[in-house]
Amino acid sequence: MRRYGKHTDEDDIRTRPNRKGNRPRTNIRPKHEDAAEGLVLTVDRGRLTCLVDDRIVTAMKARELGRKAAVVGDRVALVGDLSGAKDTLARIVRIEERSSLLRRTADDDDPYERVVVANADQLAIVTALADPEPRPRLIDRCLVAAYDGGLEPLLVMTKSDLAPPDKLLELYGDLDIPYVVTSREELENGNAAGRVREHLDGRVTAFVGHSGVGKTTLVNALVPEDRRRTTGRVNAVTGRGRHTTTSALALPLSDDDGWVIDTPGVRSFGLAHIDPSRVIHAFPDLEPGTEGCPRACSHDEPDCALDSWVAEGHADPARLYSLRRLLATRERKEGD
User: Which of 50, 210, 217, 219 has its CA 20 to 30 A from that of 155?
Assistant: First the structure.
């Protein structure tokens, strides 16, 4: 068998022709400095709907981005046909740096994380007070994901005509989370939408919640000109709702004063991707007390310095309890 060196000058070596007749591949990628800026509104089977200036443009991810995927809320750079005309297709060539990222996994043993929303300022956690019953463990998990991803939480409680909010308010009062309580009647006459809107103006807010809690109904009330789905009903046997939203969608509030991102209803919120050491950043009153903690302290062990910090009166004991409850949520099933 004949072998050739790197610099052979044999003229009988067979070379494979380039059948496509195009230029050879290169690792040097174009910078696309003239690309237009856009906002990803929704993603559906490889096609991304983007807002470019005042036009809705359909695009696909450029091959040069590799496995990096754009999600709702991403700010992207696009080239190609940006007219927004029917049957046109642009290319996303760059995903800009993200300011925040809401992620989840299917469960706590799943190593594959799913990016839900990018660049949101706030996470509105929607829970019904009854029909279906509240799931505090799911709320806790959403809170941990919000703190980890750089989003501020907002608790929205619906269906107050069926049950009072006192129990949930007592449970989350020490976390100092802003909240809004709504009823079905208020959603129908618009009063609830107005009170929720006060927390949304000028911000990008992602809405997340268990199926059947009225999340999409609330979004429809906030953006009535863009009603997206018919509402689903709660199963009388299982107490679970039916998914009425199948993909995340960004919708502008009136007067261009903020954005609402409606996401599909969730039945689980895995936290396999969460680093517990980052959750303490959401408790600025407790964070200084961790300076005396041993390395890799879980903040829920006998040698944790937070116990003495709180005992000395630097912070409210209820806040330490709340921190440890959130940190322990990965160890509990959501239905507990």
Answer: 50
